[in-house]
Design brief:
Helix content: 25-40%
Radius of gyration: 15 Å
Number of helices: 2
Strand content: 5-15%
Structural class: alpha+beta
Mean pLDDT: 92
Low-confidence stretches: none
Shape: globular
Largest sheet: 2 strands, parallel
Strand order of the largest sheet: 1-2
């Protein structure tokens, strides 16, 4: 996707210091299953802390406009993000 412009993130995965939250739409043609598997394997090999969620959604199913938007899935995913933020960023 980067076409030679800073598209080396997989080779730099070991530099990630925080926890990642990955939310994928299984019906998203932009990152097919093989690509998702490659990313997940690289993160595991690098020892990165991450959550991985694959849901039955299309590309941009979280965007609150257009026919692909799925409000029920969006609510679920926002909950995952808020949980991560609370756990990792909450003070006190």
């Amino acid at each position: 996707m980067g076409k030679g412009k800073k598209d080396n993130s997989l080779s730099r995965a070991s530099e990630i210091g925080g926890e990642l939250l990955h939310i994928w739409g299984r019906q998203d043609p932009h990152v097919p299953l093989e690509g998702r598997n490659l990313i997940k394997a690289r993160l595991e090999d690098a020892g990165v802390s991450f959550q991985w969620h694959e849901l039955n959604g299309a590309h941009a199913f979280l965007r609150d406009e257009g026919y692909r938007y799925d409000p029920a899935l969006a609510r679920q995913c926002y909950g995952l993000a808020l949980e991560l933020f609370h756990r990792r960023l909450a003070i006190g």
